[in-house]
Amino acid sequence: MARRFKNRKKAVTMVELIFTLGVFVLLSVSIYQIFRSVNQSFKHSQNKLDILQTTRIIMAGLRNELRNAIDKPQEINDRLNIPVAADKVIQYYFDKEAHRLFRGIKGSVSEADPDVSEMRPFMFNDGQILDFTYDFSYGDSKSFVESELTLNAKVWCKVSMKILYSEKFEQLSEEDKVKILENPDEDPRVKNFFMVISPRKVNWLLQVTQ
User: What is the pLDDT of residues 43-86, one digit of tens each?
Assistant: First the structure.
């Protein structure tokens, strides 16, 4: 009789088994939620890093080309033309439908524009760049005697970009895409990047400030 009672005491009851399974499931769900949250945070941070890095590459290239322009950058046929050599013009084209930025090269400003298929798209996916604009100020001075510092203060090019910064555009719902495109400035996920560049070479600055 004592032996039977001893064996019954060592056995696992159904209540204990259910309780153990419940604790195991609860721990598993908690660990999964933690892992999922960490994974989402990592992807979110990685997306922002990739987007920021690509934006910096675009801006750095534009800054160098604009600062070393040998003649006035111009907007022709909705394209930014930057003459960087006697036989080389860098051209930027922003596709407003696909929200994609392209860079191409041609021999001179008067030469025919390259086809979009011949231009290199930047690494952004369609939709990531919400807007790409540029503006020029060439001064209105009538004086022939100007210092380089004064010239550079009057001659500048401003480039602005609106970027969907924290998420990938292709991963948004259709409703979200429409909302962002309609009011990009009202959405906290959109970041504005801009820079104002003064050309380094002054051989053409004299023309635009006289």
Answer: 777 777 888 888 888 999 999 998 888 888 889 999 999 999 98
Distance of alpha carbon 153 from the chain centroid: 28
Residue 197: what residue type? I
Computed from CA positions of residues 172, 175, 178, 181, in that sequence, does the dihedral angle turn out positive or negative?
A: negative
Strands (E), the chain: 74-76, 79-85, 88-95, 100-106, 120-121, 129-137, 156-164, 190-197
Instruction: Please count the other Cβ atoms lying within 10 Å of the Cβ belonging to residue 176.
Output: 14
Query: What tokens does 15 get?
Result: 């209540």
Query: Model's pTM, two decimal places?
Result: 0.71
Let me know: does 70 contact 86? Beta carbons within 8 Å: yes
Task: Tell me the pLDDT band of 116, cut-offs 50, 70 and 90.
Answer: very high
Q: Please name the amino acid found at residue 59.
A: M
Residue 153 backbone phi and psi in degrees, to 5: -70, -25
Q: What is the rounded CA–CA span in Å between residue 58 and residue 163? A: 12
